[in-house]
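Margin note from the TA: students keep mixing up input and output lines. Inputs are the sequences; the output is the structure of the whole complex. Example:
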Amino acid sequence: AQSVTQPDIHITVSEGASLELRCNYSYGATPYLFWYVQSPGQGLQLLLKYFSGDTLVQGIKGFEAEFKRSQSSFNLRKPSVHWSDAAEYFCAVGGGGSYIPTFGRGTSLIVHP
Amino acid sequence: EAQVTQNPRYLITVTGKKLTVTCSQNMNHEYMSWYRQDPGLGLRQIYYSMNVEVTDKGDVPEGYKVSRKEKRNFPLILESPSPNQTSLYFCASSLTGVSTDTQYFGPGTRLTVL
């Protein structure tokens, strides 16, 4: 069965600092990996996704993620965080056939001015 | 504007009183699904639909029903709500349902069952 682990429930960073949110997955074949952001009171918005090819994926809002098969990881990064990045971030894994993605429990990002 | 809409956005009800949460998308998507979001548990899929009249259970279908009579609408029905169904609910849609499609999420419905 597929699963996703986001080991950090909360992450606090200062505005302008770099950010890395961790995501580890378990999947029997080549995974499809996603990062979503949920701003307060909003639905989820796709930041980026990985299916194949270049393991460094660029997304919206200046985010990127790197797929590392050997570590079963898909960590999300941003070089300089803005106050508006404060939100809940979800990693998800899916693959093949029908679309039943599995979401992680989420990481809440707090940005200090 | 391409969007997924849900109504109501907030609902407080009592145990056993049937309710329906509506979901509509204007993107002509074939695939639609419902999730619930609970603190510390992330999103869990309740039901999904690959097309009109085609629905299937997700990970947590107990206590819920759905229907897909039209392509654009996918209502979530709670025939006899219970307090453990207090949650934040999201509807989502994608073009065909394959894993490479982007899912578009509605704004959420916060349900409280007393």
